[in-house]
Amino acid sequence: MRLAKQILAEDLITFERVFKTAVKSHVPLLDSIMRYIVRRKGKQLRPMFVLLCARLAGTVTATTYRAASLVELLHTATLVHDDVLDDAMQRRGFFSINALWKNKVAVLVGDYLLSKGLLLSLDNSDFRILQLLSDAVRKMSEGELLQIEKARKLNIKEDVYFDIITSKTASLLASACAAGAYSATQNEILAEQLRQFGEKAGIAFQIKDDLFDYGNADIGKPTGNDIKEKKLTLPLIYTLNNVDTATRRKIIYIVKNKNKEKDQVQWVIQEVAKAGGLQYATHKMNMYRDDALNVLHTFPLSDVRNALEELVRFTTDRKY
Asked: Is the dihedral of CA 178, 182, 188, 189 positive or negative?
């Protein structure tokens, strides 16, 4: 991400100032939690996509900084709520909000972040930006609920899996890219073009996350976590469709009934590797990465385009 950070050095400083102002509260407890959230911020991938898409399409504006802040507010809110749902004690190597302040406070903090995002756009009449990103939040909720529904019967097919991750993960990155383009140009055609770019990159990003569950790298969540949560990800879906009936039944039985037992989860991981599930998922990830780059390459060659390509390749080549 070196080129992206180099190009966006000043933009990221301005973005961070806008974001810090947006989350500030006059309630001492909330303000303490907001400072904690700002300190533990992640790689800021989504704000960088917003800013670079604005630069690719036109010029970064005050609306662009607000769009990047809205994306980060919405993303952070969903992570806080996810940690409550998953009873997760850590996030990015730090204690989660619910671990430090308990679930009730964490849910309210997530709600607060959502409301601050809405107000940031409404107070500045950024109605189209808000519409783009509110649509992403709707899709994220639908994707999560569809995943929960299908996980009960463990009957997810590959097309349903892609429906889930397109909504649950890719929709926010897609809307972030569209919002960046629109903030710079108010051009719906350019916004849609970059929305498609972001969607393809977001799908590749999620498949990479799925693959991490079968590796040994220190990525902030234990290996086999998706299996323990009965999530059918692409490597496992491929495996279930390409093993003999006895192995398939055993995998399903373990995922349903023995998903907390380390040795049983490890056996499933080994079967997925043996069946070629990891290679298949890697192939699909690279296919979506290349689809994203094909959209990107319709724009003239520039440092900004190169920086966006660098970010896309980071999503598939990252080690964490």
From this structure: negative
Helix 262-275 and helix 245-257, axial crossing angle in degrees, nearest 10: 140
Cβ–Cβ contacts within 10 Å for residue 152, how many? 9
> What is the mean pLDDT for each group of 10 consecutive residues in the chain (320 residues)?
90 92 86 81 86 96 96 87 75 76 85 91 95 93 85 80 93 97 96 97 94 66 70 91 92 87 90 94 96 97 96 85
- Residue 226: CB atoms within 10 A of its CB come to 21
**Angle in degrees, 0-180, between the axes of helices 62-86 and 97-122, rounded to the nearest 10:** 150
43 lies in which domain range? 2-317
- Written as six digits, the tokens of 45 are 């991938």
In the three-class reduction of DSSP (H, G, I as helix; E, B as strand; rest coil), residue 13 is classed as: helix
3-state secondary structure of 94: strand
3-state secondary structure of 90: strand
Q: Give yes or no for a contact between 168 and 209, defined as CB atoms under 8 angstroms apart.
A: no
Give which of 267, 203, 205, 208 is closest to 235, Cα–Cα. 208
CATH (domain of 61): 1.10.600.10
Whole-number Å distance between alpha carbons of 292 and 173: 12
What's the predicted TM-score (pTM) here?
0.90
Q: Domains in the chain: how many in total?
A: 1
The Cα 1–Cα 318 span in angstroms is: 10
